[in-house]
Structures are given as C-alpha cells and as structure tokens.
Amino acid sequence: NAGVTQTPKFQVLKTGQSMTLQCAQDMNHEYMSWYRQDPGMGLRLIHYSVGAGITDQGEVPNGYNVSRSTTEDFPLRLLSAAPSQTSVYFCASSYSSRRSSYNSPLHFGNGTRLTVT
Amino acid sequence: KNEVEQSPQNLTAQEGEFITINCSYSVGISALHWLQQHPGGGIVSLFMLSSGKKKHGRLIATINIQEKHSSLHITASHPRDSAVYICAVAHSGGSNYKLTFGKGTLLTVNP
Questions:
Q1: Percent of chain A's residues with pLDDT above 70
Q2: Strand partners of residue B11
C-alpha cells in the first residue's frame, strides 16, 4: 500500500493563478481531509469528506474548493491564489464509518509546500 | 482561548529523561489524537484514545475525560524522539468529524 500520496511536494504560484493539490489514498478510507500548517498556528482544517459525494467545510475554507468523486481521491483547488495561502498543506485520511463518530487513527500525506508571490 | 492548549511549547531534555507533554481541551470530544512531526514535515499518528491509557514501546498516552486533559509520556528519551508533538481532538456530537489541533510541543533531546 502506498498510503496517502500528495502531489506536488513544492509549488510556486503567482497571485491570481489557480491550481489543484492532489491527494490519493489506497486504503479504502471513507474520511479524507485537508489541513494547512502555518508557523505559530498549528494545523487548521480546510475541508473534509466522509465519503464519495460528500464534502463539508472546516475552519478555514475560504479560497479553497474540494470534490470527492471517488473514495480514493480528494483534490484541493485554489481558485485564485493569494499570498495569504502560502503555507504547507497536508492531506489525511482515516477509516471512519459514516454511521459512527470519528474514531480512527489518521494517516497523513507528506505535505505540499506552497508559495504564492 | 484556544479549544486545545498544549504545554509546554518547548521542552529540552537530556537523553534518558522521562518526558511529559500535556494537552487540555475545552470542548466535548469523541477522541483525542497524539501526532509526531519530525523536521522535514512528515506527520505520524502515535495514539488515538477516548478513555484510559495506551502504551506503545516507550510512549504512553493517558486521557482524563472528566478533567478534559491528556498527557503523552516518553520514558528513557532518546535524541531520535526530538520532534514536534501535536495533540488533536475530534469534536463530539454533530461536529464529530472536525478536528482541532494544538499548536504543538517542540521536544529536543540532547545526547
């Protein structure tokens, strides 16, 4: 199993450009999520999904879009990049039934370091 | 006030010392996670617990639901334990899929 795969590892964008951060997992996990990590702030939840076709907003969703067309993939789209979106982005997944509380260990990708100039 | 508070923010220890990192939270939770992040960024899940105590090798995690407090202990610390340790809580009730993270504790273990 590859686990959680994030691409790219590094990306530089100009203000106003759009891009998609890719996240894929091969563990048949229902729960997938995106976080950003900024110095002094800790990890903050951007969007999450509890299964294919279901997404919801986290703590800092503005400027980001997600979709979950398959169980395996959960891409994060930056619609119009801004310098405030310079951060390290992590995708994570876990096995978590929609019928029960969140109660499974998290598996993280290796992160994407994004710089917006 | 943050929903998840960790202490200390920074911790320096000598090899072999017993380490304790604390996490306090102010919301109802369904589970609490302890994560480890080494320099270079990768994040690894150490424990997930909703009650009592768990042990894995030299690491022990405890949680007191009534006091809304968890501790991560490292026995016989080693320089390879140097990392940032992060506490995260899964909210209970309708928001039970949302995770809130502490800011992390930077642990440095000197040889």
A1: 93
A2: B107
For residue B54, the tally of other CB atoms under 10 A from its CB is 15
* Residue numbers in A near B96 (CB within 8 A): 101-102
Q: Are B92 and B100 in contact (CB under 8 A)?
A: no
CB atoms within 10 A of CB A83: 10
Read off the pLDDT of residues B84-100 as tens digits, 9 standing for 90 and up: 999 999 887 655 577 88
Report CB contact under 8 Å: B97, A50. Answer: yes
Residues B76, B16 contacting (CB under 8 angstroms):
yes
Residues of B in contact with A38 (CB under 8 A): none
**Rounded Cα distance, A96 and A82, in Å:** 33
Instruction: List residues bridging with B88 in a β-sheet.
Output: B33, B101
Q: What 3-state class would DSSP assign to B17?
A: coil
User: Per-residue pLDDT tens for A1-31?
Assistant: 679 999 999 999 999 999 999 999 999 998 8
* B42 near A CB under 8 A: yes
